[in-house]
Amino acid sequence: MVRVTDRLLVDKLLSSLQSNTQRFDRFQEQVATGRRILRPSDDPTGAVTSLLIRSNDTDLAQSQLNLDLAEGWLNATDVALQDLSTIIQRVRELAVQGASETLSANETDALANEVDHLLDHAMQMANTRYGDRFIFGGFNTRTTPFEFLDSAKTDWQYNGDNGEIQRAVAPGIKLTINTTGDRVFPQVFDVLIGVRDDLRAHNQEALSLDRLGELETVHDDVLDGLLGQVGSKGTRLDLTRAQLSALRLNNANVLSQVEEVDMSEAIIRLNAQQSALQASLATGARIVQASLIEFLR
Amino acid sequence: MIRSTFASLTLANRALVSQQLALDITAHNIANANTDGFTRQAAEMIASIPFTIVGTTPARPQHQLGTGVQVANIKRFRDGFVDLQFRKEQQLLGQWESSHTAIERLEGSLNELSTEGLAGSLSRFWNDWSALANSPESQASRKALAENALTLTTQMNNRHRTWETMQRDLDRQLALRVQDINNLTTRIARLNDQIVRIVGAVDQPNDLRDQRDTLIDDLAKIVNISYIEGANGAVTISIGGRTAVFSDQSFALTVQADPTNPDGFNQVMWHDAFRLEQTPPLDLDPVSISSGQLFGDIYARDTVIARALQSLQELGATLITRVNEAHALGFGLNNETGLLFFEGTGADDITVSEIITGDLDNIAAASSQSSPGDGSNALLIHDIQRELTMNNASATMEDFFAGLVAEIGISRQQAHGMQQNERLLSSQLSQLRQSIGGVSLDEEATNLIRFQHAYNAAARLVTTFDEMLDRIINMGIVGR
């Protein structure tokens, strides 16, 4: 039989008070912070999961930002190419008019002048900027990609390169977002210059035989192709955006499951622990009182 | 033999003295009810040697007549086996308590469950490279990158320094603990001397033994000891198989820088004045430490923290090498190439190169010359985070760091669990010890009444014998 001594009772009381208080403190901390893991040792696996998820989420958030900027760039490209398409359609109408024999010389010159303006407009499109950067110059984003070599606008040059600008639109996924100007503008300039000069020279034959076909090729084959590419990239970005949102939502869910405390459970536990603590305090008060000495007179 | 007329008085006197002695012992117990290390004592009363008297019948020529009581011994309630068990657990408790304290500090220095930690800085650093790819021409994104990179490197330097400080603190603590050991062994040797003398005089030095037992308890918590008590009452203590206390002599320990330890940390050695006085001084013998607080400190210093530091260093080194390799291949806005982004060799000295911070155009975002809009090299550097660069190409830097965090968490968890376990075992044994040797006030109060009654009764005997003697002495006037 264990012989119970006063010291033993006090020691036991103290140690149970201590452990009750510790547990109380722990639940109290959980309820106060709303978190289940406050240090890695609370749950090493959970801590690692939350660390990795948090950094993955930072990556996803950055990807979302990258994606938005990439979309802006693609939109700017799309707008420029759409404008170009309108320009070419208009030039085609003008070329069709100019090819008819009924026009006077003055009227043809007026057509030529309009084409010349449209050529300026096309040049503007070729030098479109997104922010402070030229979007059609490849990597050469800080120099004007296209320029006319003379005031008569008979020749032009490309100052860009064929650099493919890539963006990280999702973790591990890169997308080329730029269209280098040399893939479309040279044909456009050449055909526009050709149409203008043919109109000026009243060369109806060249207009109807060559230029109309060339315009069609530039419009249907080159421009529509590029627009299609830009459009499909936009679709891809939309899909990726949805995917990124889903991934981040999932991260938030997992993170809350791993890190956050189930409040109702924690509060119930806290209350239970509080009762236990009070009970041990109450018994402690009685233990310390009870002694034979009290009854000896 | 015929019994003396006054024998009864002597008997009553012995009874009085014995009961009073028992009362004194009870008082001593009550007085020490809260004294640490005190063991309850009790008077071991035996009937004193009987007196042979002439028999009253021929069939029984003699009788053995009792002569009352005597206190043969003042007994101490102590179980050597429980002591041994208790001290074994104390060693383990000391070991886990001290390593837990150190690991707790290490864990506290991590701040990885928020975005403010090293992992957060690292992922911000990678992100900045992909942000740079969004606008490689812009100074703003270059500046953000350079600043976040500096935050990362400073954080690494600080983390490394903090952990090193923890190691040094433990190293200093080792020296303090050795002083404690020396102090304890000296006191035990002194008590040995006193105890041997009292035992030699055929007496029981109970309270001195209690003191010595308490010192041995304390010593057991610090370092692994074994001990044996000789017949003369002296206890011989050895630490790691070598004698530390023998009779009234103690052998001191000392700390000395360990030549094999890369950080020049201390190891615990047997002090030997003779060897130290030689020129050049002769080598001291190391103390073989296998448990106790000393072991816990050394374990935390040389295993847990050292491993964490090594991992951190490795992470820093890989970061420097891989980022620099990739960075050197790219081109800056000013067409500079072959430049290094980081300087340093590991987490302790990593910093962003001054060439970079001095001219942000030197950050090589492009893969080709004269390509201000090219951010592909920045994206390549951004992708390093997904490369399996650590643990023999089996983990990314992030995985590796997460592993380190987990390792520290698990170490703490283990140390905490072991500490709780040992606390429980120790307290069970301590309770067992208390149950054997602790003072119960109820019990002592009962004894108080018991011995008081016995004392009163013995006093009554004296009165009775006094009356009887009175009769005999004043017989002359009988019948008058």
Structural class of chain B: alpha+beta
**Low-confidence residue ranges of chain B:** none
Q: What is the molecular shape of chain B?
A: rod-shaped
Annotation, overall tally of beta strands of chain A = 6
Average pLDDT of chain B works out at 92
Distance between the termini of chain B: 34 Å
What pattern of helices and strands is seen along the backbone of chain B?
Answer: HEEEEHHHHEEEEEEHHEEHHHH
**SS element count, helices of chain B:** 11
pLDDT below 50 for ≥5 consecutive residues: which ranges of chain A? none
- The gyration radius over C-alpha positions of chain B equals 39 Å
Our estimate of the beta-strand percent of chain B is 5-15%
**Tally of strands of chain B:** 12
The amount of helix of chain B comes to: 55-70%
Mean of residue pLDDT values of chain A:
91
What is the approximate shape of chain A? rod-shaped
Measured between the Cα atoms of the first and last residue of chain A, the distance is 30 Å
Output the structural class of chain A.
mainly alpha
User: What's the helical proportion of residues of chain A?
Assistant: 55-70%
Largest sheet of chain B at a glance?
Answer: 4 strands, antiparallel
Oligomer: heterodimer
